[in-house]
Design a protein that fits this description.
By secondary structure, this protein is mostly helical. 84% of the residues lie in helices and 0% in strands.
């Protein structure tokens, strides 16, 4: 994996954890696709930093469970 990808993955993970951000919000802030954020936060982060990946996955799962509530706001 290239260095710039590793840096992006870790940066996205930190942002998600600090802000409890959704995939959509993170993608908008970093100007990347939702698919990239999701892949970085699940697959690539698991290879780089498994402990951090578990924390990010927890935030993403909570957001997934709450998305039906946010849609009505």
């Amino acid at each position: 994996m290239k260095d710039y990808i590793k840096e992006r993955v870790l940066e996205l993970a930190e942002y998600i954890l600090e802000n409890k951000a959704t995939v959509r919000k993170t993608a908008k802030v970093y100007n990347v696709s939702k698919s990239t954020v999701h892949k970085d936060g699940t697959e690539r982060l698991q290879q780089i930093h498994p402990t951090l990946a578990k924390e990010v996955r927890t935030v993403l799962e909570v957001n997934k469970q709450e998305r039906h509530i946010r849609g009505g706001m």
